[in-house]
Amino acid sequence: MATLKDIRSRIGSVKNIKKITRAMEMVAAARLRRAEQRIEHLRPYADAIRVMTRRASEAAENIPNLPILQERESVSKVGILLVTGDRGLAGPFNSQIIRAGNRRVAELRGEADVVWYASGRRGASSLEFRGMNPEGTFVGFTDRPAFDDARRIGDALTSAYVDEKVDRVEIFYNGYISPMTQEVRHETLLPLQQADIFGDEEEEDDEEARDAEDPHRRALWIYEPSAEEILARLVPDYVEISIYRALLESTASEHGARMTAMRSASDNATELIDDLTLEANRQRQAEITQEIMEVVAGAEGLR
After folding, report:
1. Residues 6 or more apart whose Cβ sits within 8 Å of residue 21
2. 297 and 190 share a domain?
3. Which residues contact 178 (CB under 8 A, 6 or more apart)?
4. Does residue 205 share a domain with residue 142?
5. What does the mean pLDDT of the chain come to?
6. Minimum mean pLDDT among 62-71, 106-115, 263-272: which range?
7. What percent of the chain has pLDDT over 90?
8. Amino acid 200: pLDDT
9. What is the pLDDT of residue 214?
10. Better-predicted residue by pLDDT, 217 or 298
11. 199 shares a domain with 128
C-alpha cells in the first residue's frame, strides 16, 4: 500500500503534467486560429482554380498531348500520399490517416502495387516501421506549411506520374471541420480525368443554383489562348493548390486535435488529482487514528 509521502509525490507529478498539458492546449488554440484564417483565405482561390480547370476541360475539344494529362489504359501502380504531422500528442489524428492508407492497400491488393509518399515524420516513421519505405518523404513544415512545400510535393508526384512510375496519384489527409471534428478525406489528384476536380453532386447542384440566380455566370466563355493551352497551364497549378489546401486542412486539424487531446488530458489530470487527494486524506486519517490508538494503549499500560 502506498504511503502518504508517495501519494503526495504523485499528486505533485500529476499537477506538473497538468500544467504542461494546459500550456500545450493554449498554444494549440492560438495556432489553430491562425490556421483557420489561412484556410479561409485559400478556399476561395482553390475553388476558383477548380472551377476554371473544370470549365476549361469541358471546353477543350482535345485533351492536350501532354504526359501529365494522359490517362493510362491500365493502372498497375498507385502513388499514395499520406499527409500526417511531425509530432504526436494529437489523439487519433495521425493514426487514422495511416489506417485509411492501409485500408486502401487492402482494396488494391491483387489489382495494383502501391508507391508510398509521406508528408510528416509520423507518417514516414510508421511506413518505415512496417517495412513500406516511402518513395518520397517531406518533413519539417507541418506546423506552418508554405506553398513552396506544396510545390515540392507536387513536383515529386507529377514527375512520378510523367515518368510512369505511377499510373494514378491519390492523397489522404484530415479535413478540418471544427476543433472537435476532423474527417479523413481521400482524393484523386492524377490523372485529371479521374481527379476530384469535378466535385460531388451537391457542389454541382449548388453551382447550377447560383447560375440560375445570376444568368451572367453562364455567359459564353471565350478562351484566349485556346482552352487546351489554358488547361495545360492550369493542371500543374491545380495539383499544387490541391496539395497546399490538404496541407493547410491537415495543419488546422492537427492543432484542433491536439487542443482537444490536451484539454481531455488536463480534465483527466484534475480528476486524478481529486482521487489522489481523497486517498491521501484517507491515508492521513488512518495514520492519525493509528497514532491515537497507540497513545491510548500506552496510557492504559501505565495504569
Report:
1. 262, 263, 265, 266, 269
2. no
3. 256
4. yes
5. 86
6. 62-71
7. 53
8. 46
9. 54
10. 298
11. yes
What distance in Å separates the CA atoms of residue 51 and residue 56, rounded to the nearest whole number?
8
Does residue 269 share a domain with residue 199? Answer: no
Q: What is the pLDDT of residue 1?
A: 65
Residue 70 shares a structural domain with residue 172 = yes
Q: Is the pLDDT of residue 267 over 80?
A: yes
Cβ atoms < 10 Å from Cβ of 57: 21
Same domain? 162 vs 14: no
Within 10 angstroms of residue 163's Cβ, the number of other Cβ atoms is: 9
Count structural domains, the chain.
Answer: 2
CA distance 274 to 233: 62
Same domain, 37 and 10: no
- Nearest-CA neighbor of 104 among 71, 135, 137, 82? 82
**From its phi and psi, is residue 284 left (phi > 0), alpha (psi between -120 and 50) or beta?**
alpha
- What is the arithmetic mean of pLDDT over 137-162? 93
Q: What is the SS3 string spanning the chain?
A: CCCHHHHHHHHHHHHHHHHHHHHHHHHHHHHHHHHHHHHHHHHHHHHHHHHHHHHHHHHCCCCCCCHHHCCCCCCCEEEEEEECCCCCCCCCHHHHHHHHHHHHHHHHCCCCEEEEEEECHHHHHHHHHCCCCCCEEECCCCCCCCHHHHHHHHHHHHHHHHCCCCCEEEEEEEEEEECCEEEEEEEEEECHHHCHHHCCHHHHHHHHHHHHHCHHHHCCCCCCCCHHHHHHHHHHHHHHHHHHHHHHHHHHHHHHHHHHHHHHHHHHHHHHHHHHHHHHHHHHHHHHHHHHHHHHHHHHHHC
pLDDT at 270: 94
pLDDT of the residue at 202: 45
One domain for residues 265 and 166: no
- CATH number of the domain within which 145 lies: 3.40.1380.10
Question: Can you give the residue range of the structural domain that contains 298?
Answer: 4-25+260-302
